[in-house]
Design a protein that fits this description.
The chain has 180 residues and is α/β, with parallel strands linked by helices. It has one domain (2-177): Ribonuclease H-like superfamily/Ribonuclease H (Nucleotidyltransferase, domain 5, 2-Layer Sandwich), CATH 3.30.420.10. The chain is built from 6 helices and 5 strands; from the N terminus they run βββαβαβαααα. It has a 5-stranded mixed β-sheet. The radius of gyration is 16 Å and the shape is globular. The two termini are 25 Å apart. Its cofactor is Mg(2+).
C-alpha cells in the first residue's frame, strides 16, 4: 500500500510518501509546497490543490493520511489551517483516495511513543523508521512522513487484518518494528 501523508499549512504544506508492505516501510519521496505569503489567500489554496494533485498523479498513492488542525491561541491561524486541510481533503476526494485523519498528538505517539515529542524527536525517529538521512529534510516533510507512518502503524497491510488494541499487543505481534 502506498501512503501519502500531508502536514497542511498555508505558507508551507509538507508531503511524504511511503510504501507499506508486509510490515515494512519504504521511503518513496517527500517535499514541501511553498506558498508565497504575498499571494491572495484563494491563490494560496489553489497552489496547494494543484501541487498535491501533481504529487498524486506522479506517485499514485492508495491512501491519504492528513494531520488534523492543532488549536493554539490564535483563532485566525486555526481557521486558515482549516482551509488548507479542506483543500487537501478535496484533492484526495477528487482523486478517489481513502482519507484518514490523525491528531498531532496521535502521530507523535505512534512514531515516538510519546504524544508530546518534539520536532527533532519526530525527525530522528522518521530517519530510523524510513532508513533515510533526514538532515536534508525540512520539519514539514518529516511531519508529513510521520503522518504516513502513523497511518501505516494504525492500519496493517492487506495481508493482516488484525489491529492491535494496545502497545503491548502491538510489540508482541511486531517485534521487528520496534526500534532499539
Amino acid at each position: 500500500m502506498r501512503i501519502l501523508g500531508v502536514d497542511p499549512g498555508t505558507l508551507v504544506t509538507g508531503f511524504g510518501i511511503i510504501d507499506f508492505k508486509d510490515n515494512e516501510i519504504s521511503y518513496i519521496a517527500s517535499g514541501v509546497i511553498r506558498i508565497p505569503a504575498v499571494n491572495d489567500f484563494s491563490v494560496r489554496l489553489k497552489k496547494i490543490h494543484d501541487d498535491l494533485t501533481a504529487v498524486i498523479k506522479k506517485y499514485k498513492p492508495d491512501e491519504f493520511a492528513l494531520e488534523t488542525a492543532f488549536y493554539g491561541k490564535n483563532v485566525q491561524s486555526a481557521l486558515k489551517i482549516g482551509y488548507a486541510r479542506g483543500v487537501s481533503l478535496l484533492t484526495a476526494a477528487q482523486n478517489n483516495l481513502t482519507v484518514r485523519e490523525y491528531s498531532p498528538r496521535e502521530v507523535k505517539k505512534a512514531v515516538c511513543g510519546k504524544g508530546s515529542s518534539s520536532k527533532q524527536q519526530i525527525q530522528f525517529m522518521i530517519s530510523k523508521i524510513c532508513a533515510i538521512k533526514t538532515s536534508d529534510l525540512k520539519y514539514d516533510e518529516t511531519d508529513a512522513l510521520a503522518v504516513a507512518v502513523c497511518h501505516a502503524f494504525k492500519f496493517k497491510s492487506p495481508s493482516s487484518n488484525s489491529k492491535s488494541s494496545n502497545w503491548k499487543e502491538f510489540i508482541e505481534k511486531n517485534p521487528d518494528r520496534v526500534v532499539s
